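README: folding subset

This subset contains proteins for which both the sequence and a predicted structure token string are available. Records are stored as plain text. Below is the entry for Glycine/betaine ABC transporter ATP-binding protein (362 residues), shown exactly as it appears on disk.
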Amino acid sequence: MSSRLEAEHLYKVFGRRPGEAVKRLREGADREELRADGTTAAVIDASFSVEPGHIFVVMGLSGSGKSTLLRMLNGLSEPTAGSVRFDGQDLTGLSDRALRELRSKKISMVFQHFALFPHRSVRDNAAYGLAVQGVPRAEREARADEALALCGLAGWEDSWPDELSGGMQQRVGLARALATDADLLLMDESFSALDPLIRRDMQDQLLELQKTLKKTIVFITHDLNEAMRLGDRIAVMRDGRIVQTGTAEDILVRPADDYVASFTKDVDRSRVLTAGAVMDTDVRGDEADCDCETATPDTTFAELCAISARLTHPVAVVGADRELVGVVPRQRLVGFLGDEPGAPEACDSPRGKSGEKVTAGA
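--- output ---
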């Protein structure tokens, strides 16, 4: 599968002599050295790719460079160095006019603070991108109404933004992005201004829409739980650099460094991990013919705990042909729920506490 969006060695430097600053960064200089000279390195050597139909989440603390990185993906901010390719086209070489055309038809943004026009109806706000494209009124209103319905706002088309709750206003912003039928959605902290319950509802809405629409999405957040819930893949940023890219399970189970590990400490792992992530694979795969309760690699962690509670031996994990691909001893489950980073290694063989060999038929 070819990538829909690719960023290669992106740098964004603000201040004097940015080109010279990039050279210094490549030679090993850090942010603090540049800051002492009055130069700010917002993004440093960022590379990643996003597959079609995937949600790629960029997360990090305030000031990590994630929003600056997002603005380079649609040309709102020109990279100091590096390239951005969308469907194989290098955006960094496009003219201003070509970039405006791209943003109006192929790349849409959903902002943190709704960015609705208070003097326009909900329908007209949702149709705004289409109006910029010059789509005739009847067509753009029909497409706006369809997008609003997808976002759960059917019946609110003639309302004004100040008549809507914060969550509903954010749905209008999402509908505006969907109405243009853009290939790429860029979402900059889009749910962070919402109350926790409304925020979770918007996450549910996005995941439900994604099942049908299968948009390519880059989602910016500072909340790891949100990143884990939404992202097919996640990039963690620190001080302008991407320090780790991977699935939610990769980041939870194999953090690249202590900084990433500190983020995962308070994550509800039962909502993220699967049997495939926690199982011990040092097993023989020829003894899976049995009637005992088993798991598959996709079994959720919570379901895995329930199965383990009903068994007196480690849970056998089987593949599509009932071959034994791994086992999960109970103490391994406890280890993954704990905070101590070495816990998963506490059980390093497919044997129970008494030392007996475990098979699917045990």
